[in-house]
Amino acid sequence: MELSDRKKKILQAIIDDYIASAEPVGSSHILKNHDLGVSSATIRNEMAALEEAGYLEKPHTSAGRVPSYLGYRVYVDQLMNEYSLSVTEINQITSALRTKYLELRRVIDSISDIMSVLTDYTAIYTTPSATGITVSNIKLVPVDERSFVALVITNTGAVKNRTIRTSKIFEPAVLEKLSNYLSYRFAGCDTGEFTPEVLSNEKNLIPVDEELIDAVFEFLTDLSNEVENVDVVMSGTTNIFKHPEFNSIDRTKDFLNFIKKDNSKIIKSLLSQTGDSTSVIIGNENPVLENKDISLVVSNYSLGGGLKGKLAIIGPTRMDYAKVISTLDYLTSCINEVTANPDERKNDFD
Amino acid sequence: MELSDRKKKILQAIIDDYIASAEPVGSSHILKNHDLGVSSATIRNEMAALEEAGYLEKPHTSAGRVPSYLGYRVYVDQLMNEYSLSVTEINQITSALRTKYLELRRVIDSISDIMSVLTDYTAIYTTPSATGITVSNIKLVPVDERSFVALVITNTGAVKNRTIRTSKIFEPAVLEKLSNYLSYRFAGCDTGEFTPEVLSNEKNLIPVDEELIDAVFEFLTDLSNEVENVDVVMSGTTNIFKHPEFNSIDRTKDFLNFIKKDNSKIIKSLLSQTGDSTSVIIGNENPVLENKDISLVVSNYSLGGGLKGKLAIIGPTRMDYAKVISTLDYLTSCINEVTANPDERKNDFD
DNA sequence: CATTAGCACTCCAATCTTCCGAGTGCTAAA
DNA sequence: TTTAGCACTCGGAAGATTGGAGTGCTAATG
């Protein structure tokens, strides 16, 4: 069903007002706050039609109307006005990004903080992960007689390390020789390739003490499993208290239980279902959000070197979508810009 | 004022009951549930005296009594019965600790998870920090023509790293020579010693390109500042919903706003005020908890190699102190035992 | 003199009642 | 097709009612 222009205007007016006030919107409100040139009776008729079509809902007979999930969807896709960031907001963002030496680990963390402050919702991001990470160098560095650090440096400059203690004493020269061999042998290999099979074949070719090679290879195997190790991190979880829907303890419980640590798998999979462009998930549109009245705006960020992740805002379905979407878009574009031009930069991901 | 035996028994009975029920405790309740051999009238008289002395409070005239902060203090210090962990609980703990290769970063994290599950409160820990960390080795490992990774390996086996990109091309041999010199020069140095003054003196003695040495030294300076970098991490924040005091949205807001990320400085300082043994902070005993009805039980853990931190439980003042204290004590002793015997072990702190 | 039964009194919290008004849907006129 | 007008609905705020758990005091008791 295609909506008439007037219906669209009325729907937009209702959703705009509802987002601003969190109160069901009545026909006379629309009359007062929007210049539609028709009477409240006409608006009522149109509202009834919009309800019939599934875009609006009534909490009860004598209340105003509230957008349905479908209503929000139409609003997000077609109706809402573009929100433009204020100068102050843009300044906040740029000054936060202009630290001289950015540690990769912190960049996205602070961005997520900024997001939550600017929008007054909760920000979520997944830690960056990369496909096609290859080994650039492997080092075994002695710490004391019976322990050394195994290091794998990747093409992205990330460093994975593990301290290994041994029962025997190994000469630094032995470790160095093994380092060199491993670097030579595995340079350019994808970190996902360190399967037990590959390594056990390899093991027979290396004339080194078994304890040593076993420990190192176990580290490598663990690495290949770690590729999937994406975490979900949040900031501004208590921002929800700024919104009236969370004056009810039940809503609050629902929300906090949804975003809690134990639930990160579900959130991760929810985020991963979105595509390459900024997308909006509204209430029941996704089964895991069933009856939770939660919406998400999900975006993608890239830190260069193939490191990518999701950055999202989560909040009540009555969310200021226009503001959230434009803030998110602006921020992710800033990140991409900053990181596309890699200067000297810390890298803490391991 | 020293309490009579009977007063102590009554006070203990009231606090025990209140911890279990979260309801103000009346004289007839005590009569029913505890065998004190006196009538409710006598108990009432004693209760009035205990209130007079500041150990109890009345929410209103016709309600039962509730412990005051002072009451809890006496309870924790003198009255409460020892709680002994059940076999199931001990099994849960040991099986969680018996992973073959423990990553240091995860040990304390999973311990904190276990804590929150076992106690139904929120667990907090500070990331381990160490005093007297010294440099064991410095490496500069080439990644590609114009970038390399600078690594500082400490006596504890922790690895700090930063990826550095340069405008000029440096031969691997140059980097290796510099590595060797820096390792030789700074081996055994405390990481706190890399002040700009020390380093700028040093700089003149090293016949290497300035860009290179500047970048590396900036990394070292940053390291020395980083020593103080202790984070506060929580698990089980939504456990509070299991306790009836958090059926009120205001209590919940207060609590969540107190433990939120922005507040970690205050929490850190609160934790650091405690000594070497397990200690309890009850309600208004500390100004930052003023009128928040929050208590903490704080303990110390040690991961070996000088790495130490605080592990704590935070919850309402009506907390099952006996259970929390004994769980916390048992867990920290387990950690200390496990880590005192360092086998091959991952180390992810950097 | 400490203890206790008895009783009047207090006051919260749960439940019920009342009532206001914002909002609707329908009808009939423009 | 739009609109003025009107009867009707219903949630929620404000007030009234009531029950019961709990107290403090007094006077009797061993």
What does this entry show, briefly?
The structure is a homodimer of 350-residue chains. Chain A is an alpha+beta fold.
Description of the structure:
With 350 residues, chain A is an alpha+beta fold. Chain A has 3 domains: 5-79, Orthogonal Bundle (Arc Repressor Mutant, subunit A), CATH 1.10.10.10; 87-127 and 231-349, Beta-Lactamase (2-Layer Sandwich), CATH 3.30.450.40; 135-228, Heat-inducible transcription repressor hrca homolog, domain 3 (Enolase-like, domain 1, 2-Layer Sandwich). The first copy, chain A, is built from 12 helices and 11 strands. In chain A, strands 3, 4, 8, 9, 10 and 11 form a 6-stranded antiparallel β-sheet that branches. A 3-stranded antiparallel β-sheet of chain A has the order 5-6-7. In chain A, strands 1-2 form a two-stranded antiparallel sheet. In chain A, a hairpin with a 2-residue loop joins strand 10 (294-304) and strand 11. In chain A, helix 6 (104-119) packs antiparallel against helix 12. The longest helix of chain A is centred in the last third of the chain and has 20 residues, at 321-340. Chain A binds a DNA duplex (30 and 30 nucleotides) through helix 3.
